Fold this protein.
Amino acid sequence: LEIGFGNGESLAEMARRHPGRNYLGVEVHRPGVGHLLRKLEQFGCGNVRVIRHDAVEVLNQMLPPASLQGVYLFFPDPWHKKRHHKRRILQPSLLDSLARTIRPGGIFHAATDWQDYARHMLDLFSADARRFENPFGPGEYAPRPDERPLTKFEQRGRRLGHGVWDLIFVRRR
């Protein structure tokens, strides 16, 4: 499952690279959904399902327990002003939803170009070591996996000198 796939570039690319895997994309922005559907048609991918809905509601109300092998959250809105941090998608309540829907041994993978948000995510998951394990060690970020497609957004950020932080956590058994 990719939460908030934006224009769908990374989801389409992962689906193209791995035709034997099934993907679910959740996005509220209608133009992004349309862009993804065009890209999937261009690639000839039939292994992606799309829901245009709020991801929190999808996780809480539409997916059975332990039904996901992995959840991706790439470059979510950082809501960088402190007074807006409560709007960030990754909150303790979402962690509960992720723990319920990600099967044991499955992964949560996030990437952000906002260091403060990366620290927030790392702290949140690290505080839940009973349900999630950091395979790179306590307090450590993951090296950028080749598995994660490089997006246009990320390429632009790199040209501007922005850092990118990847976080990968494994659902404990």
Notes: The chain has a mean pLDDT of 92. The two ends are 20 Å apart (CA to CA).
